[in-house]
Design a protein that fits this description.
mainly alpha; 4 helices
């Protein structure tokens, strides 16, 4: 794996909890979600900004939905 990637072993309860805390801390520091499928589809051109906003309206009452709407609105 190249720079910017991390392998998280989650084979035990403790390591799964540690991986969750790592992801949480990284997302908080960067202000970005890790593994956000809708955001990735938008960035790769698989869906348009309008389609992304339409999909995200179903989730608007959640923190995840708010994040998706913010990211789509920032998109070109």
């Amino acid at each position: 794996m190249g720079r910017g990637y991390a392998w998280l072993d989650t084979g035990t309860h403790d390591s799964l909890a540690e991986a969750g805390e790592f992801v949480k801390a990284l997302e908080k520091c960067q202000g970005l979600k890790i593994g956000c499928i809708e955001e990735n589809c938008l960035e790769q051109g698989f869906i348009s900004k309008e389609k992304a906003l339409q999909l995200e309206q179903e989730l608007y009452k959640t923190e995840y939905g708010e994040y998706l709407i913010k990211r789509a609105k920032q998109w070109k």
